[in-house]
Amino acid sequence: QVQLTESGGTVVQAGESLRLSCTASGTRFGGKDMAWYRQAPGRQREVVATVSHAFTRTYASFVNDRFTISRDDVGNRMFLQMFSLKVEDTAVYYCNTDFQSGNVEPFPWGQGTQVTVVS
User: Fold this and answer.
1) What value, to the nearest 5°, has the Cα angle with vertex 101 and ends 76 and 39?
2) Are 20 and 114 contacting, i.e. CB atoms less than 8 angstroms apart?
3) Shortest CA distance to 70 belongs to which of 84, 56, 60?
4) Which of 16, 26, 79, 96 has the fewest C-beta atoms under 10 angstroms from its C-beta?
5) What does the pLDDT average to over 76-86?
6) Full DSSP string of the chain
7) Residue 102 clears pLDDT 90, i.e. is over it
8) pLDDT tens figures, 27-67
9) pLDDT-based confidence at 12, cuts 50/70/90?
10) Mean pLDDT value of segment 71-75
11) Percent of the chain, pLDDT > 70?
């Protein structure tokens, strides 16, 4: 049974940084295209960043070079380093496979980690 666990979210001031982490039990990240997602109140879940099994990275347009996605397949972990956070980055952040690529199935969603950015 696959279980994803996100951590690192907290309340920060606008302009500050955060590093989110994702770990998994019951599966290995290696060989899979992975992604970070977020869901703000009243909005649909959206892709923030992806990292392929070959370590190719893509970012949503709203990221604007402020975030860096990375993965550690040996440690079975994934990270999202976020800089220059904005109030509009407030959301619950989730990790999962990049299932929208059509190359991999999604895992069950974890609980996510809440990021709150205050001005």
Assistant:
1) 75
2) no
3) 56
4) 26
5) 97
6) --EEEEE---EEETT--EEEEEEEESS--TTS-EEEEEE-TTS--EEEEEE-TT--EEE-GGGTT-EEEEEETTTTEEEEEE-S--GGG-EEEEEEE-GGGSSSPPPPP---EEEEEE-
7) no
8) 999 999 999 999 999 999 999 999 999 999 999 999 999 99
9) very high
10) 95
11) 100
Please give the structure tokens belonging to residue 106. 């999604």
Tokens of 60: 């949503």
Type of residue found at 51: V
User: Which tokens is 59 given?
Assistant: 């970012």
Question: 5: which 2 tokens?
Answer: 């666990």
Residue with tokens 């079975």: 76
